[in-house]
Write a structure and sequence with these properties.
This protein is mostly beta strands. Helices cover 5% and strands 49% of the residues.
Length: 249
């Protein structure tokens, strides 16, 4: 209940300022589910998150943190590099005198926009093809690993359409995710709704199903550079993060 009250308080306090997310994993999207939204051309983001153990693969049986670099190179391609921290105890390093966060898992993500929203007709949704953690060098190099490294492996296709309803705007997002992970299967439909109220156009409230769990969250952009995100997975597990956005164009 205390986390729920904190979440609601942060949302209300930030409502005058708020904004595509999924920066939980260092890429544009919803909270965990993909979307077909893109950052504007030549946007660089540096950020990090507190990650509740309920949203990470089972390898992380403890709360952890990540940090990332994300670059939208062209209007149709986005690349990210994300590091998630390991505890020494989980890696069996405690007998050697190590403790706490001493190592990290590293992976790349790539998103390619195949169709722009409204490109050929006004009702056409945007479409993006993407992947996170597609390759691991362990075991001689493996694409779409089933076990071992490649913890955040996933491939997806996502579609997004924004619909004006009076003076308000609703985003409808649908995607299909796939991976071959034994312990963290992501195979199925993901969907979400985002809402940008007219009284605070930068405010973005998100409800989603990421093919495993339901989540509710919100993002906002402070002073056009500081992106903040809060969420409750399964409506009770808190995760949050910050990112700084730099516009090179």
């Amino acid at each position: 209940m205390r986390l729920k009250r904190l979440f609601i308080t942060v949302l209300l306090v930030s409502a005058p300022y708020m904004l595509p997310a999924q920066l939980t994993y260092g890429t544009t999207g919803l909270l965990h589910a993909p979307s077909a939204e893109m950052q504007r051309d030549k946007t660089v983001m540096l950020g990090g998150n507190f990650m509740n153990k309920e949203i990470t693969p089972p390898t992380w049986y403890y709360h952890t943190y990540n940090y990332y670099l994300n670059v939208t190179i062209l209007p149709w391609i986005e690349v990210a590099y994300t590091c998630t921290l390991f505890k020494a105890e989980a890696l069996g390093l405690k007998p050697y005198g190590y403790s706490g966060f001493t190592n990290q898992d590293r992976y790349f993500s790539v998103r390619l926009r195949a169709l722009k929203e409204g490109q050929f007709w006004k009702y056409m949704p945007a479409v993006v093809l993407g992947t996170s953690d597609p390759f691991t060098s362990s075991g001689g190099g493996v694409v779409s690993s089933k076990t071992g490294n490649g913890y955040f492996s996933r491939f997806y296709i996502a579609a997004t359409k924004h619909l004006p309803i009076g003076t308000e705007e609703i985003g409808v997002h649908l995607s299909y995710l796939y991976n071959e992970r034994v312990e963290y299967s992501l195979n199925g439909i993901a969907a979400g709704i985002s809402y940008n109220p007219s009284f605070a156009p930068d405010l973005r409230i998100i409800a989603e199903y990421d093919s495993k769990d339901f989540a509710l969250g919100a993002t906002y952009l402070l002073f056009n550079h500081l992106h903040m995100q809060v969420e409750l997975q399964r409506m009770k597990y808190f995760t949050g993060g910050l990112a700084y956005k730099i516009y090179l164009k």
